[in-house]
Structure formats: structure tokens, C-alpha cells
Amino acid sequence: MPTVSDILSSKGESVYTISPDATALEAINKMNQHKIGALLVMRGSKLIGMFTERDVLRRVAGALKSPADVLVADVMTREVFCCPPHTDIDDAALVMKERRVRHLPVTDSDEHICGMVSIGDINACHVSQAEATITFLNDYIYGRA
What we know:
Strand order of the largest sheet: 1-2-3
Largest sheet: 3 strands, mixed
Mean pLDDT: 94
Low-confidence stretches: none
Number of domains: 1
Number of strands: 5
Strand content: 15-25%
CATH class: Alpha Beta
Shape: elongated
């Protein structure tokens, strides 16, 4: 079974970050610019939170706050669930389902950021696996394997 590390090896380990002192508007613009749904909030090299589309909807727009006037630190998600690179993708999907999150930062034993996986990355991996299985079974049934 593939691991989170397998996903990172194909998509890359780069992550987008933002300072807790940035405004929500700066974070929103960065997310739009890179077409992503979440930013890691970093103080130096330490992960202190995540700023996600859900934070924009609930804590900025839903609270009628001006994105230009509110700091990321005031509206970010503080409880961040991470996983190590060797995590099986089914286990990562289960964590996302149970915790109701769509992004998991990947950290090593020293809490160094190795990358981030999204539910879309995991779904794409599952689809790829299913397609390979179907092709194999089709070839087997029709004597091409």
C-alpha cells in the first residue's frame, strides 16, 4: 500500500507558508495566487497553525471581519494534525475523515516539515491504484498477462 511519502515523491515536498502576523487578506491572496486551500502558519521554523479556506469562511467572512484588518494568528486553526512520511494513505485518509480536515502536514521525527498532502492527493492516489488493478484484472481475464 502506498504511503504519504509516495505522494510527496510525485507531487513534491514544497509547502506554502505564512506568518501569523500577516493579514487574512495577504493569506487569501497567497492561496488564490497558488491555487491552494491551506497555508502552514510558521513562526520561524515552528509550525503553529494552519490557515484554510474553512477559516476564511467561518472566522473571517462568517464573523463579518474585514480580511485586511484581521491577523492570521487571530483566525487560524491552532490544532494541527500531522503525520509522518511512512503513514499509509488509508490511515491518512482515516485521520482526515475522523478529524474533518482536508490537509495534513507531513513531519519527520524532529517535527521538520516534509510536505503536505490533501484529500485530493489521497483520492488521486486511490484512483490511480484502482485503475492499475482494473487494467491488471482485465489483462488477466483476457489472457494478456
